[in-house]
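Readers of this paper often ask what the protein records in our data store actually look like. This encoding replaces a full spatial description with a residue-level series of whole-number codes. For reference, a complete record is included directly beneath this paragraph.
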Amino acid sequence: MKEKWTSTAEVVAPTSIDMGKYVNARLNFAQLSKEPLNVDEVSKQLYNSFDRLEFSRNERREFFLQSDEYKRLIEGKNEKAQREILANLLSKYKLSLVLIRIKILICLTTD
């Protein structure tokens, strides 16, 4: 029997601890520009940005183009076959991405 590896995770909005120095920078900028903003709003904005990227076709396309799996699948194939393989990967994993949830950990440092 062939082994199969699976994993599940959950996407959650980042906490103020997860956001580290980023949240302070965003709050300071909001104060300077006289925009009302709080930690929950910063967390929501980051989560929404991640959510848009997660389901972006271009982001998924770039991911697959750089993946070892795609490179293995296209080995020795002509350009048309390579495009079909990429299209199949994009459609196959579109539904999987809906089910996958990854906890967002944002680690920003300042130099």
Remarks:
- The radius of gyration is 19 Å.
- DSSP finds six helices and no strands in the chain.
- The CA atoms of residues 44 and 50 lie 10 Å apart.
- Residues 16-99 form one domain.
